[in-house]
User: Fold this.
Amino acid sequence: MAAALLSSFVAHAANEAATVFLPPLDANAVDPIILAQQQVNQLSSYQLRLHSQSPKGGNTLLTYSYRKPGYVRMDFSDPHHGAVLIYAPDSDRARVWPFGLGTLPVVSLSPDNALIQDPNGHRVDQSDIGTFLQTLRGLQQNGKTTVVGKEILSGQPVLHVSVIGSAGIMVSQVHRFDVWLESRHAFPVKIISYGANGQLIETVVMDAIVYNMQFPADFFTP
Assistant:
C-alpha cells in the first residue's frame, strides 16, 4: 500500500449490512474471503485512515481514498507530513505534491516508479482493498485457510482469518496473511503479512472507514 494523507479523518460509517461472522470452514461453509470480495465489489468508493508498520520502513500514517474504477488519493501524515499522491487510471499516472496540494513542485510519475513504491514494493495502482483480496485469494488457492475465530479489535467485533500458502508457495513475497474482517461489511481492518521463514513483513491497521464516500468533484483531479 503506497501512501498519502488527508488533513481530517472521517468517522466510521454506520451503513447497515448483514453481520458476517462465520464458523470454522467446512465443506458447506461460506468462505469469509469470498464474502469480503463480494462486499467490497459492491462499494463505489471508500475512505480510511491507514497505519502501516514495517521492519524495513518504519511507520506510515495516511488517509487513503478510493473511487471506482481505480482513482486513488493518499494524504500523508507520517512521514512527509502534508504530501499528497493522486493516481488516475485513465492516464495511468500518479501526481505527487511533496510539500502539499497546491504547492510546487508537482511531479508526474508512472505507478511502477520506485520513487513512489514503499519498502515492500507496493504500487499505488495496486493498493486498493479489492486488489489485496485478489492477492489473498491467490494464496488461498495454493494453501490453507483457517477461521481463527471472533475477536475484539479496538472495541469492535472482528473475524480473524489466517491464510497460509503450501510449502514453498508465496504470493507477492508473502507466505502467510492474518486478516481481521469487521462484522458489518467483511472489510479488512487489520492485515499482518509474513515471509517464507515466518519473518514479519508488514502490519497494516485501518480505521475511520467511510463506505460509499461522496467525494467532491475535483477530489481526484485537483
Remarks:
- Residues 1-28 have pLDDT under 50 and may be disordered.
